[in-house]
Write a structure and sequence with these properties.
The complex is a heterodimer of chains A (307) and B (198). Chain A is mostly helical and 307 residues long. Chain A has 14 helices and 2 strands, in the order αααααααααββααααα. A two-stranded antiparallel sheet of chain A has the order 1-2.
């Protein structure tokens, strides 16, 4: 009797061990809330992949989904952003859309006709160089000393040898000082402050309460904001925006045309982008002083992707 | 006891044969496809409006070669996929492909000598990899990551992540938003309309 019991348990153990679902530790995320029928389907489809007659007949399986969505930890954080202001946001989104098609784009296109690309890249470099204070401060606040040093070096070199920032010799192969893509909103994210809900600002576009800090902070940290009179300030800001738009004509249209619901598409793209930027900065923060990849945060995959 | 061993042996045989076959480096496979795309788009013999259709036809063939369309569609619908009948699924895969062609076809055709650099592949799971590349233009660098899955011994793309934004996730959010309020038939109708207009 004891023998039979032991062998039955033994066989059961091997059957369970051999079940393809458990063969891979990454499959542990298989959700048990799925109805048992789905579970059976999963098994049969996995055991004979050749015999699965038509992939169209197969059900969607949660366990094969390796996106950030599958990872429970992140699921909470990012499946979606709360959008309590959706009705207002949609109106602002429409306004910004019209602003782009009726004003920004035609002006940028005219500007593009007149100004050669190399000059427009120089203008972009110039404004990007002026954005140094915000990036430098953000690096410092994130305890990213190497990033702050890189920014300080870039600013000095590009201002002095890059003719006031028109050229960008620092990012060349020899010096290889790349611009630190960070801002105050990301800093708050690194500190653990959540994104909150979605806001579309007129002119500024997609944002969150957290990222609005960047807009406000830039007001104080951007040298252009100290220009007098206000008309000069406006003029310079418009040049910045038009110049930037002239280098990106077509990007907005492409995203919009590809979307089934452009409002939702832009919201999602914004949230995904910001999320991964913050993740990348967080990885840097938790692993300083060293390359981000040496640290193993809760979800190694997302930090890898955030690079 | 003997029976027991036979059983064990059978289980081991099944285990050994269920290990996925080595399908060649994912990076090389994606790189080859992208180079073929560049070859078609940049072909000096195929110029002008008339050649556009020929190029598109060639790209369509390549798309099927490069992407796992069903996997792609399934992931964009996620759990909602199970609400679709087989016929609806078939139509969805077809419509989704057309939406993508409409959205990105001209973008791909407008390629002009931008440099594409493949630099890394990272493992996501036993049969999933992420191949990282960047497109370098005169004013910027755009990171483009391809997520590939081993489908019957071939590496097929099931997601493209451009500038940190996953295409699958982006569409998933949109479809989810629609399917939270409406049924699959309504989504198909929206897609049909999207494909037929302009």
């Amino acid at each position: 009797m004891k023998n039979i019991l032991a062998s039955v348990i033994g066989v059961m153990f091997f059957v369970i061990a051999a079940c393809p679902c458990n063969a891979d530790p990454s499959n542990d995320t298989l959700s048990f809330s799925q109805p048992p029928t789905t579970f059976k389907l999963v098994l049969s489809a996995k055991e004979n992949p050749e015999k699965a007659a038509n992939p169209l007949d197969e059900d969607y399986q949660e366990d094969e989904n390796l996106d950030e969505y599958a990872n429970n930890e992140i699921k909470e954080e990012r499946v979606d952003i709360a959008d309590p202001l959706e009705s207002v946001n949609r109106v602002t989104h429409q306004f910004n859309d019209k602003l782009y098609f009726w004003a920004v784009k035609p002006v940028a296109q005219g500007y593009k006709e007149v100004v050669p690309e190399s000059a427009r890249i120089s203008v972009k470099n110039f404004f990007s160089n002026l954005g140094f204070p915000a990036r430098f401060l953000s690096c410092l606040l994130q305890a990213d000393l190497s990033g702050a040093a890189t920014e300080a070096g870039r600013f000095t070199i590009n201002t002095v040898w890059g003719i006031g920032g028109l050229l960008d010799p620092s990012s060349g192969k020899e010096l290889n000082l790349q611009e630190q893509n960070t801002d105050l909103g990301q800093t708050l994210g690194v500190w653990g402050i959540g994104q909150g809900f979605y806001i579309v600002w007129p002119v500024f576009g997609p944002s969150t309460p957290r990222d609005t800090v960047s807009i406000a902070g830039n007001y104080f940290l951007d040298p252009v904001a100290y220009l007098n009179p206000w008309s000069a300030r406006m003029g310079v800001n418009v040049l910045d925006k038009v110049n930037a738009a002239s280098l990106r004509i077509g990007d907005y249209e492409a995203l919009k045309d590809a979307a089934v619901d452009p409002y939702v598409a832009f919201r999602d793209a914004y949230v995904q982008y910001r999320y991964k930027r913050v993740k990348a900065r967080q990885a840097k923060w938790s692993s300083s002083p060293g390359p981000a990849e040496t640290s193993v945060p809760a979800n190694p995959e997302s930090s890898k992707r955030g690079q | 006891m003997k029976k027991h061993f036979i059983r064990l042996f059978a289980i081991f045989v099944i285990l050994i044969f269920s290990v996925p076959v080595y399908a060649g480096a994912p990076l090389d496979s994606v790189k080859k496809c992208v180079n073929e795309v560049i070859g078609i788009v940049g072909n000096p013999k195929l110029k002008g409006e008339a050649a556009k259709e020929i190029k598109k036809e060639k790209l369509r063939v390549l798309y099927k070669e490069m992407f796992d369309e069903i996997e792609f569609s399934k992931r964009t619908l996620a759990r909602n996929w199970n609400k679709f009948t087989p016929d609806q699924r078939k139509e969805f895969v077809n419509l989704f492909e057309q939406v993508l062609e409409k959205a990105y076809g001209d973008k791909v055709l407008s390629y002009t000598n931008e440099k594409v650099e493949f630099y890394k592949e990272s493992k996501l799971s036993d049969d999933q990899f992420e191949v990282q590349s960047k497109i370098i233009t005169s004013s910027k660098e755009v990171p483009v990551f391809y997520r590939v899955i081993n489908s019957n011994g071939k590496w097929k793309v099931y997601d493209v992540v451009v500038e940190n934004v996953s295409l699958v996730q982006n569409y998933r959010t949109q479809f989810n938003d629609i399917l939270a309020k409406d049924n699959p038939a309504k989504l198909l109708e929206i897609l049909r309309k999207k494909v037929s207009t302009h």
